[in-house]
Every structure is written in C-alpha cells, then in structure tokens.
C-alpha cells in the first residue's frame, strides 16, 4: 500500500469520524450496486469529502473480493490449467502448516517467513511457477526468472499436470526450505 493511501486511512477517524472498517460495514449494510451512488451516499448522508468517500468505496469493494474469487478469475478461459494449480497447492500445503497462500489479482504468492514461490497462469496453455532460489544456477527445467523480475530468481514453465514432476517438486521444496 502506498504512503498516501496509508496516511489517508490513518487520518480517516479524525477527518470523517469513523475508522475504515466502520465505513466498510456501513456500505456493506446498505449494499450499493454502483460506485457513484455509494460515494454520493457518503457525501450527502455523512458529510464525507469526495476524496475520502471515493477511497472508502474503492477499498470496500476490494474487500468484498474473496481469495476464491481471485483464483477463479485467474483461470477463466484457462480451465485446463486449474488441475496444475490445484496440484501445486496440495503439494505445498504438505510441506507444513506454516505456508500462507495469498491469491492476488494475477497470481498466487506462496509465503513462509518470506515469499518462496509464485503461481501465475501466464497464458491459456501455461503456468509460470516462480521460485526464489538465491545462489542456484539455471539447470534442467529451472530457467531465469522471466516475467517475475525481482520477485523470483527462477521460473519453471508448466503446461501439463505431468510437469509437476519430481524435479519441479524438488525445486519447490528447496525454495520452501530456503524461505526461513
């Protein structure tokens, strides 16, 4: 979250009389279908300035999206990749109960103490599995990070469920072990 937004959230109780979660509950109770109507409601009924009203409505809508919704959206038109994703998740959860699975808009982060992997449906026919493996040479199916930049050091391209093989699991396990 950027500093300006965090500052706005921190100042919200003083400037609007309520904390963000209180405003979100009010909007949830009213259940507005349109962003503009919710902004108008906050301005007219509660005297909230436009900037705060717009921020409150935007953040309330983001909070209504569940983790399952984020994952489902990632695989629209890519249904053949979903079994690969599910196998990766079941593999990672078998590593230990300290794995945090964090879906985002376009990917799913796998975190222990630090992020150790990222699952991204890159195309309609391929998942890119990003791994954080510092000081590991590119070898076998392990490639340079590709589209991940600094989030991951390496990637493995997965097109079939059979690609989640012993080599993939070995690299995923190593990334998990290094993330302490």
Spans of at least 5 consecutive residues with low confidence: none
Number of self-contained structural domains: 2
Tell me what portion of residues adopts beta-strand conformation.
15-25%
Radius of gyration: 21 Å
Instruction: Give the overall average pLDDT.
Output: 90
**From the helix content, strand content and strand pairing, which structural class follows?**
alpha+beta
Number of helices: 7
Q: Strand arrangement, largest sheet?
A: 1-2-3-4-6-5
Query: What is the overall silhouette?
Result: elongated
Termini, distance in Å?
Answer: 24 Å
Biggest pleated-sheet summary: 6 strands, antiparallel
Query: H/E series, N to C?
Result: HHHHHHEEEEEEH
Helix content: 40-55%
Counted beta strands: 6
List keywords for this structure.
180 residues; alpha+beta; 2 domains; 6 strands; elongated
Describe this structure as you would to a colleague.
It comes from Cognaticolwellia beringensis. It holds the Pfam family DUF4287. Residues 74-177 form the DUF5655 domain. This is DUF4287 domain-containing protein. The structure is a single chain. With 180 residues, this protein is α+β, with helices and mostly antiparallel strands. It folds into 2 domains: 3-63; 69-178. It has 7 helices and 6 strands; from the N terminus they run ααααααββββββα. It has helices at residues 3-16, 20-30, 35-46, 50-63, 67-74, 82-93, 166-178; strands at residues 100-103, 108-111, 115-123, 126-131, 143-144, 154-158. Strands 1-2-3-4-6-5 form a 6-stranded antiparallel β-sheet. β3 (115-123) and β4 (126-131) form a beta hairpin. It is elongated, with a radius of gyration of 21 Å. The model has no long low-confidence stretch (mean pLDDT 90).
